[in-house]
Amino acid sequence: MKKLMIGLLVAAAGTGIYFFVIKKNKEKPIDTGFNKELIIGKWAGETKAVPDSTTISLSWEFRKDGTALFAASDTVKTDTLYYSWKDSIGLKVQKSPADSLEMVYEVSKLTADSLELKQTGSDPILLLKSK
């Protein structure tokens, strides 16, 4: 009878440890963020301003200090913008750091050689790293 009780206690302790470990593994958050340093550099791509329109070439240069240079083929000048990460996948772009008007892009892909930006209700913009 003593051996049966000891066996049941060992089995209960083993089951408790098993469920504790399983629960602990399930509680780990999944990191959906990107290596945000990969955005630094020059990027180029194409997009259509509106459906059935001509293609516009885009050029972005993201710098470490939080500034971004933006140029489109349909304009002559380059705009200096400011960017910051809104959350793990949100890229906030503003005309000035104190500006209340902001554009938020969802970064759906960020690798060493490609960057995909999405805005609500528009097609994704694929940019490739310029050399």
Could you explain how this protein is built, in words?
By secondary structure, the chain is α+β, with helices and mostly antiparallel strands. It has one helix at 2-26, and strands at 41-48, 55-62, 67-72, 79-85, 90-94, 102-110, 114-118, 125-129. The protein folds into 2 domains: 1-30; 36-129, Lipocalin. It has an 8-stranded antiparallel barrel. Strand 6 (102-110) and strand 7 form a beta hairpin. The N and C termini lie far apart (77 Å).
In short:
This protein is α+β, with helices and mostly antiparallel strands and 131 residues long. It is built from one helix and eight strands.
Task: Give the topology, please.
Elements: H1 2-26, E1 41-48, E2 55-62, E3 67-72, E4 79-85, E5 90-94, E6 102-110, E7 114-118, E8 125-129
Number of domains: 2
- In the CATH hierarchy, the third-tier topology of the largest domain is known as Lipocalin
Compute the gyration radius: what is it?
Answer: 25 Å
Q: Strand order across the biggest sheet? A: 1-2-3-4-5-6-7-8
Overall pLDDT level? 82
Low-confidence stretches: none
Helix content: 10-25%
How many helices?
1
Corresponding CATH architecture of the largest domain: Beta Barrel
Structural class: alpha+beta
The coarse overall form would be: elongated
Largest sheet: 8 strands, antiparallel, barrel
What is the succession of H and E elements?
HEEEEEEEE
What percent of residues are in strands?
A: 35-45%
Given this structure, which CATH class of the largest domain is correct? Answer: Mainly Beta
Query: What is the rounded distance between the termini?
Result: 77 Å
Number-wise, the strands total 8
